[in-house]
């Protein structure tokens, strides 16, 4: 198996927690992984991305080549578009629908959705509303991981174990909320692709 | 076997601890910061009392590390590439003194300038100083090479330059650890004048260093980290150094390259190995992250049509490599164009909402409207972002501390109302000596030290200023009446305008210290506070 994922968003939106969850799950399952991330200047409210690679074979490059990503997982809709040239023709783009507007010239959101809809395989998730319903707005990024999980060639239970390992220190309640967020995200995607 | 999920930076720190480190010295700088932060948080490092406090700058860090080596202990100094410019005096001379305890200088280069002012390649510094360079290709190798580098440094009596680049530093992988070694015991150098670089001693030491070069090269020929990998298709032979090796392997199923390949991770270059490849193959392709260092070594001024790389345009001359660049150079793929939807807007980094620097700039911008454009000299830090919209406040950013000295030079040249804008940590790194120059000549200059109690851009490390800025400026000789302060908040805007205006009008050295803690460090402290129930 091999899944190459581009994670994207805005500095501070929690893409590194998604990466940590996938990475922890991969190591628990004895898989190889590489995850490249951005630190420093661009973290200050700029666009950020992470290259996440998981495979049962050794992985050479830390970077995913353009046109070769299996999945783009974005926690912000405009940032999903920034990396489209990395997506395989039959790859999946999964993005949160909620725009993060910290620039004065943020484009018309309907125009952004229209561009996303041009991509063959796409899922637009209102992760913030799903997280809000669970009374756990901060786990909207984990909802997004759940929504992308059907396209990541890994055991779904392993993600839950990873969340237990990562959030365990914060208490059972936080662990339960994140696991629920993960499941709800997955349910959303399953309902879309099984239509 | 158990693997730890570590950043390249963290793997380096873990390896250093495991191989008997007694002290890490550093000033924060992307992409090197996480090495020292890892030592600071590590349990064994705490138990062993391994030194890991931040230094004022890279030069003080390098010198402290050299002192620890003198005392017989294993030590590591970490910095970003431009930090080595600051530490260069000590670094160059450490090659002449040699070491007692093993000494590693980890330098993290930033090709593509993700968070830097240039993309200088530290291998030139290693070559310049005539010290061995280790350049791992992946995170596990980074661990393994650090583990070996201390022994190597002690065996050959030289410091080792450990060169990494952004992608290795800031990428995570599972790492297999080795056995924890004991620290060295304290010892003096065998010759108590080894570190006295008087001309008579330095000449002798320098000849020893020159004499050592053949042994260092021999070590590169037999190094486990340099490999000659056979291949049947000899139309091309490939030399791939450091992380560029991965981009080569990525392009072939199961990593099997049909051409002969030399993987380089240890320098000086193994010339026998390279000569063999050169004679065996029709053309040579050189893949290296950074400058065309190896390529130029091979071709020099006369050039060689057989050798291809960044200089010949087969690969891009600048910026970091990726697997596609390598595939194109090998004729496997076409260049992939960056297609972006027209609707996409750039999202440049910006100062955080609520940042104190913003309030200072809003006041400064208003005052500078009266004095005309082009007069604000600035420095390295979050506040450099004020060059961009919406603030557009500053006119220069060159190197750590250059705000004050460039404003001085401009003032010397007759530019009136010169303002320097610098942060607290950058001021204690390299601003103090420049301010002393101003005091010495009573230069007409206004220095704003925007104090947020932290080294913000690199993630909020402790600042050496520690509420001492007023005392430091007074001690350097700035007149008490012209050391002013205010709290940068919207409600204090009028006070800020008044202070800035008064000090710009003063024809001598003024220092204004707006002081409010970084919103990010404050936020983190509150989080920690909730978790551990106390505040530092």
For the largest beta-sheet of chain A, the strand count, sense and barrel status come to: 6 strands, mixed
What is the name of the CATH class of the largest domain in chain B? Alpha Beta
Total number of beta strands of chain B: 20
Sheet with most strands of chain B: 6 strands, mixed
Q: How many domains would you count in the coordinates of chain B?
A: 3
Straight-line distance between termini of chain B: 39 Å
| Percent helix of chain B | 40-55%
**CATH class type of chain A:** Alpha Beta
| Spatial order of the strands forming the largest sheet of chain B | 2-3-4-6-5-11
Average pLDDT over all residues of chain A: 93
Overall 3D form of chain A: globular
Helix content of chain A: 40-55%
Which structural class should the secondary elements of chain A be placed in? alpha/beta
List the domain count of chain A as a whole number. 1
- The span between the termini of chain A is 26 Å
Number of strands of chain A: 6
If you had to describe this structure to a student in words, what would you say it looks like?
The complex is a heterodimer of chains A (195) and B (536). Helix content of chain A is 41%, strand content 23%. With 195 residues, chain A is an alpha/beta fold. Chain A has a six-stranded mixed sheet, sandwiched between helices. The longest helix of chain A is centred in the C-terminal third of the chain and has 22 residues, at 172-193. The relative contact order of chain A is 0.17. With 536 residues, chain B is an alpha/beta fold. Chain B has 20 helices and 20 strands. A six-stranded mixed sheet of chain B has the order 2-3-4-6-5-11, with helices on both faces. A five-stranded mixed sheet of chain B has the order 8-10-9-12-13. A five-stranded parallel sheet of chain B has the order 14-15-16-20-19, with helices on both faces. In chain B, helix 1 crosses helix 2 and helix 4 packs parallel to helix 6. At the A-B interface, helix 1, strand 2, helix 2 and helix 3 of A face strand 7, helix 11 and helix 14 of B. Strand 2 of chain A pairs antiparallel with strand 7 (171-175) of chain B, so a sheet runs across the interface.
């Amino acid at each position: 198996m091999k899944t190459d994922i581009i994670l994207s968003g805005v500095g501070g939106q929690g893409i590194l927690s998604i990466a940590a969850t996938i990475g922890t799950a991969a190591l628990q399952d004895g898989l190889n992984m590489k995850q490249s991330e951005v630190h420093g200047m661009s973290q200050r409210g700029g666009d950020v991305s992470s290259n996440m690679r998981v495979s049962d074979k050794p992985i050479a490059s830390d970077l995913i080549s353009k046109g070769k990503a299996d999945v783009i997982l974005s926690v912000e809709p405009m940032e999903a578009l920034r990396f489209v040239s990395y997506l395989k023709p039959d790859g999946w783009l999964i993005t949160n629908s909620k725009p993060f507007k910290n620039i004065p010239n943020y484009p018309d959101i309907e125009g952004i959705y229209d561009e996303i809809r041009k991509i063959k395989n796409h899922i637009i998730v209102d992760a913030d509303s799903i997280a809000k319903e669970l009374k756990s707005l901060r786990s909207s990024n984990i909802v997004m991981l759940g929504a992308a999980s059907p396209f990541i060639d890994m055991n779904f239970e392993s993600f839950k174990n990873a969340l237990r390992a990562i959030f365990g220190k914060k208490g059972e309640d936080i662990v339960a909320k994140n696991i629920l967020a993960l499941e709800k995200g997955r349910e959303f995607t399953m309902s879309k692709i099984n239509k | 076997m158990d693997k730890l999920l570590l950043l390249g930076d963290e793997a380096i720190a873990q390896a250093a601890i495991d191989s008997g480190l007694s002290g890490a010295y550093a000033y924060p700088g992307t992409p090197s910061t996480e090495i020292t932060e890892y030592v600071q948080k590590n349990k064994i490092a705490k138990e062993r009392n391994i030194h890991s406090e931040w230094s004022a700058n890279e030069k003080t860090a390098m010198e402290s590390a050299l002192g620890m080596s003198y005392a017989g202990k294993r030590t590591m100094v970490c910095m970003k590439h431009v930090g080595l410019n600051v530490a260069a005096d000590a670094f160059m001379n450490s090659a002449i003194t040699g070491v007692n305890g093993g000494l590693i200088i980890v330098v993290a280069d930033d090709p593509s300038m993700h968070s830097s002012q240039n993309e200088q390649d530290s291998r030139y510094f290693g070559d310049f100083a005539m010290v061995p360079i280790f350049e791992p290709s992946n995170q596990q190798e980074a661990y393994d090479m650090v583990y070996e580098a201390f022994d190597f440094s002690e065996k050959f009596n030289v410091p080792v330059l450990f060169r990494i680049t952004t992608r290795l530093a800031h990428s995570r992988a599972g790492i297999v650890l080795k056995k924890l070694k004991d620290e060295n015991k304290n010892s003096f150098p065998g010759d108590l004048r080894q570190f006295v670089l008087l001309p008579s001693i330095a000449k002798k030491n320098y000849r020893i260093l020159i004499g050592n070069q053949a042994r260092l090269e021999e070590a590169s020929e037999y190094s486990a980290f340099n490999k000659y990998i056979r291949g049947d298709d000899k139309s091309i032979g490939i030399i791939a150094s450091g992380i560029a090796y991965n981009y080569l392997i990525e392009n072939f199923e199961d990593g099997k390259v049909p051409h002969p390949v030399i993987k380089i991770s240890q320098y000086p270059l193994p010339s026998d190995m390279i000569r063999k490849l050169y004679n065996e193959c029709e053309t040579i392709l050189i893949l290296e992250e950074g400058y065309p260092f190896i390529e130029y070594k091979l071709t020099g001024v006369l050039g060689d049509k057989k050798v291809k790389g960044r200089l010949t345009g087969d690969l891009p001359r600048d910026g970091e490599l990726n697997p596609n660049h390598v595939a194109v150079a090998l004729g496997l793929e076409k260049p992939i164009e960056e297609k972006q939807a027209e609707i996409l807007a750039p999202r440049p980094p910006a100062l955080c909402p609520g940042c104190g620097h913003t309030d200072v700039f809003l006041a400064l911008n208003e005052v500078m409207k009266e004095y005309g454009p082009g007069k604000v000299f600035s420095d390295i830090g979050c506040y450099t972002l004020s060059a961009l919209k919406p603030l557009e406040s500053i006119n220069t950013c060159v190197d750590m501390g250059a705000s004050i000295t460039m404003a001085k030079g401009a003032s010397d040249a007759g530019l009136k109302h010169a303002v320097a804008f610098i942060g607290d940590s950058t001021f204690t790194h390299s601003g103090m000596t420049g301010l002393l120059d101003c005091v010495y000549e009573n230069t007409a200059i206004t220095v704003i030290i925007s104090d947020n109690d932290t080294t913000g851009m690199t993630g909020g490390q402790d600042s050496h200023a520690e509420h001492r800025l007023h005392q430091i400026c007074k001690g350097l000789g700035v007149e008490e009446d012209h050391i002013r302060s205010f709290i940068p908040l919207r409600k204090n805007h009028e006070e800020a305008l008044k202070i800035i205006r008064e000090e710009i009008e003063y024809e001598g050295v003024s220092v204004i210290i707006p002081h409010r803690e970084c919103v990010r460090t404050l936020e983190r402290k509150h989080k920690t506070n909730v978790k551990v129930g106390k505040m530092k």
